Amino acid sequence: FASIEAAVEEGRSVFDNLTKFLVWTLPTNGGEALIILTAMVLGQQLPIQPVQALYINMTTAVLLGMTLAFEPREADVMARAPRDPKQPILTYELFMRTGLMSLLLLAGGYGLFEWAHWRGLSQAQAQTIAVSLVVVGEVFYLFNCRSLIDSVWKVGWFTNPYLWAGVGCMAVVQLLFAHTPLMNHLFQTEPLDLLSWVMIVAVSAVIGTIVALEKSLRRRHARRLALARA
To answer: Which among 96, 102, 158, 175 counts the fewest CB atoms within 10 Å?
Structure first.
């Protein structure tokens, strides 16, 4: 019986981390697609070029998304009711969360792209800002995905050292992407000034806060339902 319990516990933990990765990675493609599609519909220049989208997918999936596989199992994993085998991996709540994040990346990425043009920056700089917003926005969203229900404060900021290592590596790669001649040549980017980086981080922080608030509202709603049933 001890072996069966351990197997169930491990299985639930693996399933949790797989779901977290999917919930994190889907808005990446969704946000990029919406940004590009919006530009095409409006007949404007692309905020993110195909080669830049490839860069986002390749680097973030490895340096950010894979770190979720090392998330420690959550404390209540064995206190949950058995999962319905017919239930999809992405429940309605998680599907809506991925949709919300895709829309937030669209608003942030496209908004800063237009802001860069308003400032008189070049097209390459505007695209660099849009790409950086998607990447940094994913970093803030990554912390929200460490638990599908609880806040990062309850999970603990430093319980997954691989996540911090991935975020640090991603920060270095993103700075190289924007500020080194080789990466500028390969991905048609240009260096950014301090104000641009401040705006990127600030908008990304707002995106992360909105997702955290969405999770908080769902937790409160779930508690109210539980009390009503009791």
So the answer is: 158
CA neighbours closer than 13 Å in the CB half-sphere of residue 156: 9
What is the distance of C-alpha 226 from the center of its chain? 30
Residue 127, SS3 per DSSP:
helix
Reduced DSSP (H G I as helix, E B as strand, rest coil) percent helix, strand, coil of the chain, to 5: 75, 0, 25
- Phi, psi angles (nearest 5°) of residue 119: -75, -10
Over 80: is that where the pLDDT of 84 sits? Answer: no
Polymer length in residues for the chain: 230
- CA nearest to 22, candidates 58, 61, 73, 50: 61
Average pLDDT score over residue span 129-156: 90
pTM for this structure? 0.89
